[in-house]
């Protein structure tokens, strides 16, 4: 299952960050999953608890921001938001656009608890 391996890779990232900060637990995990990332947020939500078992993030809450698609027109140079299935420039209507944002899946932020 693709989403489970995505989550396992994510857990490694989270654990690395937690170790760097000497965290005792991870409270919250914030993910950004772009509409064009090829990753389904609902499947991530299902796979995440499985991937988190036995990790420092076992009880962490998962937040997913699906963001929006931003494109840059190669013809007129303007940036605009676009629908994932219709990547047209909002200014001139050209299809020769470049995706600036919306195809990424990134770990945005983790909230850690540390012992003092
Ligand atoms: Zn344009």
Give the SSE layout.
Blueprint: H1 2-20, E1 23-33, H2 41-52, E2 61-65, E3 69-73, E4 79-82, E5 97-101, E6 105-114
Helix pairs in contact: 1-2
Q: What labels would you give this structure?
A:
single chain, three-stranded mixed sheet, elongated, 116 residues, 2 helices, alpha+beta, binds zinc ion, 27% helix, hypothetical protein PF0899 fold
Order of helices and strands: HEHEEEEE
Helix share bin: 25-40%
Compute the average pLDDT: 94
CATH class call: Alpha Beta
Write a structural description.
This protein is an alpha+beta fold and 116 residues long. It has one domain (2-114): hypothetical protein PF0899 fold (2-Layer Sandwich). Helix content is 27%, strand content 34%. The protein has helices at 2-20, 41-52; strands at 23-33, 61-65, 69-73, 79-82, 97-101, 105-114. The strands form two sheets. A three-stranded mixed beta sheet has the order 2-1-6, covered by helices on one side. The chain has a three-stranded antiparallel beta sheet with strand order 4-3-5, with no helix packed on it. α2 links the parallel β1 and β2 (61-65). α1 (2-20) packs across α2 (41-52). It starts with a helix and ends with a strand. The structure holds zinc ion (ZN). The site of zinc ion has 8 residues, from loops.
Compact summary:
With 116 residues, the chain is α+β, with helices and mostly antiparallel strands.
